[in-house]
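input
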Amino acid sequence: MSRLPLVFLFFGLPLAAQVKLTHSSDRISVEIDGKPFTEFFVSADVNKPYLHPLRSASGKIVTRIFPMDLVEGERRDHPHHRGLWFTHGDVNGYDFWANEPSQKGPRKGRVLLKKIVDLKDGKKSGTIAALFDWLDPSNNPLVTETRRMTFYSEPSLRTIDIDITLTAVPKVVFGDTKEGTFAIRLAPSLEEDPKGAPATPKRTGTMRNAEGATTERQVWGKRSPWVDYYGEVEGEKLGIAILDHPSNPRHPTYWHSRGYGLFAANPFGVRDFENDKTKDGSLTLDAGQSVRFRYRVIIHPGDYQTSNIAAQFERYAKTK
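output
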């Protein structure tokens, strides 16, 4: 009996997806090239959906673990800083930002999963599409959120495209506050400011925007199309860049980026960022009206120069 050559059998088999998504009861796990990348937490037990942890292509964790778990060397402040998330501190007067059950205040909103619309594995990319309700304390929906997150398989990068459309149920106002909006809490070694931090690990981070400004003092509250926050994680030089798509409201966005590791784009906090009480950065949506936000997150080796974040932004800016 004739036998097919082993090489033919190998190439005749379908290739496994390089971005694999697995949905369990409380989360969706994202695996890239056979290695864990992140998990998308969508349980009703959490007050907002978030990605945690984020890893580099080499497997290094680049986001803080607290409050999901306790790890030596981490600051244990701001328990609402969970991995990567998108919420805002003032929506019709309700706080969707600092909204943990442990935090005081009666006017806390929450973002609840309505349904997973689509999960798609792929050789080069994988996609999660989901629908959420932004609920007031009486569980009345204020905003419907449609979110699509695309994860890419690349040899040395970990890239996520996040596309969010918010639709007002009643009339809503996104208030002017620095407490928002698209955010990541970084691993301790990527923090820029060692003041008040545990002795180890060493804080090695630097933030830099597209205009060349560095450090919280020059980046916080300023407008820029992108910011890169880079340093060392377990001896490897790594960074995370957030890119603000040119189609976003008030592009280039303002940055609520802190030396202690908060890394956030916020188009609303104009009064705070410009320290001018005459300014109003609020955004009003009438019932049924929508607004769209698009961001690209790139976890890369080296710094903004070696990974050419400026060119990465130019490519992203051309996407429709």
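quick obs: The domain at 18-317 is CATH 2.70.98 (Beta-galactosidase; Chain A, domain 5).
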